[in-house]
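Thread title: Can someone regenerate the structure for this chain?

I was given the following input by a collaborator and told the matching structure tokens would be attached. They weren't. Posting the sequence so someone can regenerate them.
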Amino acid sequence: MFGSAMAFGLMAVAIRLATRHVPTQEVAFFRNSFGLLALLPLLLRPGHAPLRTRQLPRYLLRSLIGLASMLCGFWALGHLPLSLAISLSYSTPLFVTIAAVLWLGEKVRIRRWAAVITGFIGVLVIVRPGSHGFEAGTLIALLGAVLSALVAIQIKQLTRVDGADTVVFYTYVFWVPLSLIPALFVWVWPSGIAWLWLAATGVLGTIGQLLWTRALKLGEVSALTPISFTQLPLVVVMGWLLFGETLDHWTVLGASIILAANAYIAHREAVLARRRTTPG
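Best answer:
Regenerated them for you:
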């Protein structure tokens, strides 16, 4: 999980560097293209089970929503301070809890609702609507988190039928052509160092996904979730070194509240999962 957090953190830095050379839509296209290229040797190696599915319409919907989330998130990474963009992305699990109730009919009791409310207090601390420190761009970052939560719910549904590798593969297969469409309207041919940053977004994103999936297979979510938050110190340091960004104390306070709420939600979900699987 630590390796996954580092890969995703470095991918965020690469996205920020890439957006200096090409538009956000184009960064998303190359992230998906290079990501698929990095994934193919692993999924199509000899002996690997065939990647078949009967859920193509669902994959199309998942990919459309996921692409919209990606564009929002990439825009935030390119235009907001890195620490701010990453901190707001941590609000996704809060929206996942709400979406699971509305979409999947899951029952959430008072303690998890209290954690969700606490997490949203952290979001308000960061965004500070109505204050002089408010940035309209934070709303785009939050929209990306909402859409990412919907994607998480769809992945839960897809993995009931298909394996994790199949879900990742067909997502990329749809993402590449879908992300090309908006990129064509703002296309700028990359040159020089831009190719390195674009390739890095795809490779690091794929590495992060593979390590994240492996971590969740080996360990419990409640134990692993706090480790994933080590991504934030990494992007804070990189933002300071590469872009001269300073860390806002409101972002630190709000992110701490959100991370504490997420850690508790993950703990409660793990406890309930163990109860469901324990006979008696």
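The chain has twelve helices and no strands.
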